[in-house]
Amino acid sequence: MGAVSTSPPSAARFLDACHGRPVDRAPAWMMRQAGRYLPEYREVRRRVSFIELCRDADLAAEVSLQPFRRFAPDGVIFFSDILVPVQAMGVKVEFDKNGPRLSHPIRTGDDVLRLRRFDPAADLRFTGEILKRLRGEVGDSAAIIGFAGAPWTLACYLVEGTSSKSFAPIKQMMGWGQRTLEGLLNLLADVIADVLSFQIASGAQVVQVFDTWAGELSREDYRRWALPAVTRAIAGIRRSAQPVILYVNGCSHLLEAMNESGADVLSVDWRLPLVEARQRLPQRPLQGNLDPGALLSPTRDVRRRVQAMLAETGGIAHVVNLGHGVLPQTPIESAEAFFEAAREASVAQAAEAPA
Ligand code: CP3
Asked: What is the pTM of this model?
């Protein structure tokens, strides 16, 4: 057994792991860690709509800090949504119980021309405010995480209008509207680069790009459509040492292609065993990958599965996370068990475990 470390949360640990530098233990956070599984979040949501919450710097900073106070993660993601910048492009976005709903789906070149490239410092001022507050509150005890949707995933919403899972309209565009789709993806890449640059200037120390729907593409189509767009977005981010994390849900067939995007860390889902990801990309810092559904099991099983996941990293710098966002049905004790197990396991333990 290696020494058990329960060292406090730290921004440096998170950033070191993202750069592949040695750490005392793997840093941990959870995608969607602020949200409906927390009673204090539901309490705030009784008073304001989701969109109002995203645009209110006081309340958004408050709900970003709720999981930080409870679980002491090494990273604090600011509260917002990937569709907030889409609103700033001039699209009407609403959320109902079935998820997001966008006005006027994009289908033609003229539709793309009506979308605006905007100045985030003017149109997303509240985002800058939230990040500044979080940096002030959290100090060095956790890294502040900025984020945006990747061009492909945002294009899915813009073309479909909802989160319908058929992808027929955008796949039709891949065949019949190639110039329109290229124009849309390039515009989104530039908007995302502007947005993430602004988040970094406002205090984000690491940024994650969510390409939730890219796993829907074959390897060939990923290389043709989603990869060039996300590569352009990442290349356009004005940053110094701030790492970029790229997340794709259902990424096992895309891992090597994702590794060409310019991202510093690749975030993998639970369908791909970490051991295999590590073999395929021996040097690349990885993030993930516990099945969010595992948090619906008894807490002793949650702990066991976090320990097993850490053993799979082989002691190489890793960011502990879920393989997708935490589910609203998750019991608080499970989230606690997830973070405690991640804190207790030391890198030495992981290194001693069989690969
Ligand atoms: O991680 C965090 O704690 C920060 C907040 C965050 C939200 N959305 C808040 C949210 C982040 C990082 C996102 C990203 C996001 N949003 C993604 C990519 C990640 C993923 O989960 O795949 C996507 C695809 C969206 C779009 C979106 N927003 C959908 C499809 C929905 C409806 C489904 C759902 O989970 O309710 C949302 C709404 C949303 N975004 C909620 C939250 C907390 C629920 C709103 C509520 O309080 O009712």
From this structure: 0.95
